[in-house]
Design goal:
The chain is mostly helical and about 280 residues long. The chain is about 60% helix and about 0% strand. The termini are far apart.
């Protein structure tokens, strides 16, 4: 037995691992684990509320990463530097896959268990997530009427107002096509960015050119497929949300006042990049 072990002191290393962090940054320090792991504050006495809280907190962290990636994607599209954008778009699609599987964990909560915690949720609802709203705005699903939900927090409202009034990822993709010589209607390039995407014949025709001659337009061809991958993952995420909510609360009104499942089902009809899906019929 070493003198250090016999004296009861901790060893300075264990199989090469550093053990003393009194003067060095630890894993917990780097990740801010004190703040993260102390951010769960159940309001009910029910055991299952911790699952509900952590499910939504981790979802917000993943959405934060998606926003980080998509803001960078938009900048790369403006610069015409597509390879980094492809990597980021792939990452966003995989994050959405991760969020799809997260619903499997929440689905272990039964209706009886949710009923026990629901009175403690008040009017709080995922409908109020400003990060999710910014995500939708960045992807082109603009809706100025929903801005009023966030008026009570000026800095959040300002961030969303900027996202509402600036071109989406898809808008930037269409402007990139125009810069690369494909014909896009001037009205589409100068549209009111606060409005949701509407199908445009010139955009569909431009994507058709890309798909009919992929070797000639390879970068745009790859961009199109990355966007389709991402929207497909987003649709699956939304669908899994609907089915999980129906499994747990049926057709009750949501805590935030929405119609619950029927409202979420309407959201399944939203198409973010309409011409990219419509063009497939013409190929």
């Amino acid at each position: 037995m070493s003198n250090q072990e016999s004296s009861g002191k901790c060893p300075m290393s264990w199989h090469g691992a550093q053990m003393d962090f009194s003067e060095a940054m630890s894993y917990g320090d780097y990740l801010g684990l004190d703040q993260i792991l102390s951010a769960q504050h159940p309001r009910s006495p029910n055991h299952n509320e911790m699952l509900f809280i952590i499910q939504h907190q981790t979802s917000e962290l993943w959405i934060k990463l998606m926003l980080h990636e998509l803001h960078a994607v938009r900048q790369q599209l403006r610069l015409g530097d597509l390879p980094p954008a492809f990597k980021m778009l792939s990452r966003v699609a995989r994050i959405m896959d991760q969020l799809v599987h997260a619903w499997d964990v929440l689905a272990t909560m039964t209706p009886s268990e949710y009923t026990a915690i629901r009175p403690y949720l008040g009017a709080s609802s995922g409908f109020q997530s400003h990060q999710y709203r910014e995500l939708e705005f960045l992807l082109g699903n603009k809706n100025a009427a929903l801005m009023s939900v966030h008026e009570s927090v000026p800095e959040v409202h300002a961030t969303l107002d900027s996202a509402l009034r600036t071109p989406s990822i898809y808008d930037e993709s269409i402007m990139l096509m125009a810069r690369q010589g494909l014909t896009i209607d001037a009205a589409r390039l100068e549209q009111d960015w606060t409005q949701p995407v509407q199908t445009n014949a010139s955009v569909k025709a431009a994507w058709l050119q890309v798909y009919q001659a992929p070797e000639q337009h390879w970068a745009l061809y790859e961009l199109a497929e990355k966007l389709v991958d991402m929207e497909t993952a987003f649709r699956i995420w939304r669908f899994r949300h609907v089915t999980t909510v129906e499994r747990i609360i049926g057709f009750k009104t949501g805590t935030g006042g929405t119609a619950g499942v029927s409202y979420l089902r309407k959201m399944l009809d939203v198409v973010l990049f309409p011409e990219l899906f419509a063009v497939r019929t013409d190929l």
